[in-house]
Amino acid sequence: MATGYVRPARPEDAGEIARIQLSTWRTAYRRVLPARALDRLDEAWMADQWRAAIEAPPSPRHRVLVAFEQAESTYLVGFAASGPADEQALAPDEPPLAADVAAVTDLLVEPRWGRRGHGSRLLAASVDLWREDALATAVAWVYDGDPASRKFLGSAGWEPDGATRALDVDDQLIPQHRLHTSL
Question: How far is CA 66 from the centre of its chain?
């Protein structure tokens, strides 16, 4: 029987986090994001960014967590990154969010390891840490073309808060909606 667990990311996890992110984006978002943008992503550069986020986060409340599948071997299968909401969590022309709001910047499980509880474990571990940090609400942006993420977060009680934005990716506007939940 396979089991899983979550722990804080370590610098040596950065390469695998980048591989998972790139693989997942190229699989799950191939119809959402322009192919030319996905093709230009550099895994080594992404690993360097993840290593920096792990080694020198902007605050102690910024965290990267990793999920593992344990079967015959142990595999890193997903990750979550979050911290206090900053300007990246805002819709256009929106005033800053309250100081007690957490923002999910990434929550991905490699598709081949999906539907085994890894996303739920990552989200639950994140919520536990947000509560320890006295955060009261959390927000996350989801692509319009990503019903799986919307359904996953919706099943955990997240709802649209009315905020929308569009990311400019290779001169293509990619619409997003923000979800929120009370902690």
Answer: 11
| CATH number assigned to the domain comprising residue 11 | 3.40.630.30
Q: How far is residue 25's CA from residue 67's CA, in Å, rounded to a whole number?
A: 17
Sign of the alpha-carbon dihedral angle for 17, 19, 20, 26: positive
pLDDT in tens, 147-170: 999 999 999 999 999 999 999 998
Is 144 among the domain residues?
no
16, containing H or E segment: helix 14-28
Q: Which amino acid is at 18?
A: A
Which residues in 82-113 are b (16+ Cβ under 10 Å) and which e? bbbbeeebbeeeeeebeeebbbbbbbbbbeeb
Assign 2 a pLDDT band (cuts: 50, 70, 90). low
Is residue 1 pLDDT above 50, yes or no? no
pLDDT in tens, 49-93: 999 999 999 999 999 999 999 877 789 999 999 999 999 999 999
| Structural domain boundaries, residue 87 | 3-136
Query: What is the layout of strands, in order, in the sheet containing 172-182?
Result: 3-8, 63-70, 74-84, 101-109, 137-143, 172-182, 159-169
Q: What angle do CA 174, 175, 179 make, to 5 degrees?
A: 135
Tell me whether residue 8 is in a domain: yes
- Is 20 part of any domain? yes
